[in-house]
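Report of the visiting student (M.T.), summer placement. My assignment was to run the structure pipeline on a short list of targets and document each run. The first record concerns Ribosomal silencing factor RsfS.
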Amino acid sequence: MTASTRAVELTHVAARAASDKIAEDIVAFDVSEQLAITDVFLICSAGNERQVRSIVEAVEDRLREAGAKPVRREGERQGRWVLLDYAEIVVHVMHTEEREFYALERLWRDCPTMTLPADVTPGRGR
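After the run finished, the structure tokens were exported:
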């Protein structure tokens, strides 16, 4: 089983939105083989809380325009790690320090990395 067409579409929309706000280290994992609750984890980071919030707002706006509604949202108040759950995809926007500490890439390294559109820049970290 692989990520659904809709999940891939939403991942591309979210990745472009994050890239437009200069998110760092944008990466997407197809977790559909490992998890029954979602198809894709999109992970990106920012150097400060203000930028985390800016990325979150851009992702939410673009996904809303694409017809997606969040199932749940966590961590907005602190602005250190915001999780946006859209059922088909889960977007993690993390402060750089949290990303290094929690190392989600290490946890999901057995899952295939998804190719993102050419206009998505991975940011300074890669």
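Residues 49-65 form the longest helix (17 residues). The first strand starts at residue 24 and ends at 30. I thank the supervising group for their guidance throughout the placement.
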